[in-house]
Amino acid sequence: MANRERAGAGAVGSAGSLGLRVGQAVFSSAALLFMSVGVEFFSYTAFCFLVTIMGLVIPWSCTLVMIDVYSIFVGCPLRVPGVMAIVVVGDWVLSILSLAAASSSAAVIDVLLQFHGSQCTARLCERYQLSAMMAFLSWFLTAASSLFNLWDIASR
Amino acid sequence: MANRERAGAGAVGSAGSLGLRVGQAVFSSAALLFMSVGVEFFSYTAFCFLVTIMGLVIPWSCTLVMIDVYSIFVGCPLRVPGVMAIVVVGDWVLSILSLAAASSSAAVIDVLLQFHGSQCTARLCERYQLSAMMAFLSWFLTAASSLFNLWDIASR
Question: Transmembrane stretches, by residue range (chains A, B) (predicted)?
Answer without folding.
Answer: 96-116, 128-151
